[in-house]
Amino acid sequence: MAEDFLHRAKARFTDAQAALKRGDYPDVVRYSQECVELSLKACLRVVGVEYPRVHDVGDIFEYHKDSFPKWFREKIPQMRQVSRDLSQKRGPSVYGIEGEGKTASELFTKTDAEEALQNTEKVYRISQKFFNEYYQQKPEDQKPHINRRTTSKKR
Questions:
Q1: What is the Cβ-side half-sphere exposure of residue 144, based on CA atoms within 13 angstroms?
Q2: What CATH number labels 2-142?
């Protein structure tokens, strides 16, 4: 599952980059949030933590930080903040603020989109690094096996 989550997170990051190029700033925020959510859930999956079915799982890392290496623990506050920020913007990035009559396109600027994408890239790269290091250090017989439809690789 973790590998699939990271695969999908990368796809969301690519979608966010494309949305930025076409000037669709609310979609950059939305896709960025999805990338961060999937990236963080992948990390929790790797260490066997069952996470709640919510968009912001950043706080879960505080309860399980000892499951992660020191370099990763040092990044948790930053990743929690990014997750919280983007999760709060997720709804408005899709629907706007209907009660105020504001569309999503009126709410998010190019600067907002660029900041979201930069923060998302950091979280995704941290998650990818953790995933790669974790599986390089585990003996093959202790690695969980994940069947992917597109490949016979097991991870």
A1: 13
A2: 1.20.120.330
